[in-house]
Amino acid sequence: MVLLVGQAMASMDEEILVIAAPNLGSDLHASSAQLQLVLAMYIVAFAALVVTGARLGDVIGRRRAFLIGLCGFTASSLAGGLAPNAVILIGIRALQGASAAAMTPQVLSIIQLQFEGEKRARAIGAYSMVLAAGVAAGQVLGGLIVSVTAVWRPALLLNVPIGAVLLPIAFRRLPDVDRGGRRRLDLSGALLLSAALVALVVPLSLGRDTGWPAWTWPSLAGCVVVFVGFVGREHTLGRRGRDPLFDLGVMKRPGIAAGVIAVTVVMACYAGFLVALTLHLQTGLHFSPLVTGLVFMAYAAGFAVASLTWTRARPAMQARLPTLGPVAMGAALLGVGAVAAGGGWPVALTTPLLFCAGAGNAWAFSPLADRLTSVVDASQAADVSGLIITASLVGQVLGVVVFVDVYFSALPHGSAHALALTTAVLASALVPTAVCACTASRPSLRAA
Asked: How many helices (H) and strands (E) does the chain have?
């Protein structure tokens, strides 16, 4: 439970300031560029450092890494809630993201090492549920805080009492799975990978809103160059018997590459739909931020129920869920788009469709994450944890860029039409994803 609460805090902060952004910008007299950096810097630092954070658990011990991350996250939340200006808040949001990168990979790594078989599957189901519930809670709480208090600072300060209560509990009860010390941290590799991910995530996060200025393209090209250098360095270290930041041998395991692609696309579709739906509800139907967040709770509920119950299915059905999930998710999103195109927002129709979409998302993620963590050795737990979380974060950034652009391209024909077109594109992207998930979830992988 301690691990899941920590994960929920990190997931919640991905979205909690988005709805409060206008109030925040006015209060801190932030420019448009500064406001975008405040919103983006958390995910930039999180994505750039999460693989390093995963490996940190091997170096100093996963319990210690989680506690350090939780301390940093709580302290930076307090500092962020008290920030006097936008520039300082940008730096604090980066510290928050770095703290989340140290804390969250330990959750999945400890689950891998502490549980086996069905117990691990149930634990990963709960972990997956928290991922979606945290994002939905961030939306709802952000809207509620702005609606009730008309200020943004409580959105960050909310983490402080939670962290203060969680820290002593975690210190006493968190299992000491591995004290660390068996591996060294590859600092050069960490710098190279972080630079590559920053060069990718920053232009993707800021490019659309700034009109894709000239600097974005060299940044994306530089990402490729630096990443190739990182892979070369890791290969050299592994060949020499030294400790690489990331064990490239993980990618040679059957189904891992296909599974990572599937996770990336599913999370991209999830994030793209979340933003497109939010835009339609708030700008097209003029729903309040709070009501918009509550609408999305139906999706989160479907994700939560499916994440917690998929292990009760028969083994043959469990093996099919990663393939059925993207198809069910795509079909439900098509239904939402069709209803929206008809005008209005009939709750009796949209609520079950959103629930089904969330359930399909969970079927596409939870069983697949269980497969990916089951086919590697205990020594590769950190590698898989960092890989899955990085794929999820980068997928979310890509989804906002690609699918929200689809929404805006169709917006001149009306918000309802734009949402319908976006859901059609999302559904088409999820069909080949089902093929990747099928490759990654073959039962034979467990014997690999």
From this structure: 16, 0
Distance CA 368, CA 310 (A): 11
Domain of 221 in residue numbering reads as: 186-244
152 and 201 within one domain: no
Q: What are phi and psi of 439, to 5 degrees?
A: -65, -40
CA distance 334 to 273: 11
Asked, for residue 448, whether it belongs to a domain, the answer is no
Digitized pLDDT (tens) for each residue of the chain, 448 residues in all: 778 888 888 888 877 787 777 778 888 888 877 888 888 889 889 988 988 988 888 888 888 899 999 999 999 999 999 999 999 999 999 999 999 999 988 888 888 878 777 788 888 888 877 776 677 777 777 777 777 776 788 888 888 999 999 999 988 888 776 655 567 888 898 999 999 999 998 898 888 778 888 999 999 999 999 999 999 998 888 888 788 888 888 888 878 888 888 889 999 999 899 889 988 998 899 888 778 878 888 998 898 888 888 888 888 888 888 889 999 999 999 999 999 998 889 999 999 999 999 999 989 888 888 888 877 777 777 888 888 888 888 888 898 888 988 999 999 999 999 999 999 999 999 988 888 877 766 544 444 4
Question: Cβ distance 215 to 249 under 8 Å?
Answer: no
Q: Are residues 327 and 231 in the same domain?
A: no
Whether 204 and 336 share a structural domain:
no
Residues 271 and 355 reside in one and the same domain: yes
Domain total in the chain:
3
